[in-house]
Design brief:
Order of helices and strands: HHEEHHEHEEHEHHEHEHHEH
Helix content: 25-40%
Radius of gyration: 21 Å
CATH topology of the largest domain: 2-enoyl-CoA Hydratase, Chain A, domain 1
Shape: globular
CATH superfamily of the largest domain: 2-enoyl-CoA Hydratase, Chain A, domain 1
CATH class of the largest domain: Alpha Beta
Structural class: alpha/beta
Number of strands: 9
Number of helices: 12
Distance between the termini: 68 Å
Strand order of the largest sheet: 3-4-5-6-7-8-9
Number of domains: 2
Largest sheet: 7 strands, mixed
Amino acid sequence: MSWLDRVRNALPFAAKRDTADNLWHKCRQCSQMVFVKEWEDNLHVCPRCDHHDRIGAKQRFAQLFDGGRHELISAPSAPEDPLKFRDTKKYVDRIKAARTQTGDRDAFQNAYGTIKGQGAVVGVQDFAFMGGSMGVAVGEAFVAGVNEAIRRKVPFIALTAAGGARMQEGTLSLMQMPRSTVALARLRRAGLPYIVLLTDPTTGGVTASYAMLGDIQISEPKALIGFAGARVIENTIREKLPEGFQRAEYLLDHGMIDMVVHRRDLPETLGRLIGYMVPEKAA
């Protein structure tokens, strides 16, 4: 230990003050520095450029449900590593790292609560967990959310955010596409609506399945929505894509989604839609 360290440790310095790392948030869109508290109070939306940042299930449930009150719905267990997959890391190690980072078991969580007094089951896909990739655990959680909605006779609302299917689970991951579709068919037979909120980004096999099967398709502003990436499409068709291709506003203009809604307006919008779509006795 140097003399400077010994002197510093002996002196009664005040506790370490907050630094820029925990006082400030740098917007990914406009690169402006915003006070973290201001950013969080604004529902994780940049007050400068209105960029809607990616958030997880905990924040979504707190923002959507009345008073933030909700009841978490457990999902059936799923095989951790069915194919014993390994690339640069073992798949099990990637799962452990994602769980440590997010505090969640996997990329999809469900909860029941009320939105503007209307009962609903809400399923949230978290991009922070391995890119929100769709594996067996996500499929199990999605089906569990649909089953709970049928049991309670309320709508099922899915908030999607994914890079697509989880490659480490191969065909088992792709099988979650028809599984979720069958589950939604049962929801419709029960006379209950399915509402989708597309968030940034929603791509790949998730877009090709439950993300685009809603009775009502909503998106947050400027969310990236598509199946293949823009560069892949351009290389395939040998044409330059239009400006803003695969963004929410472009899809709205071309009839792919029904509305683009600011995050602050989501509870009001969802509550109103549920009131329109669900018979009073089922709400």
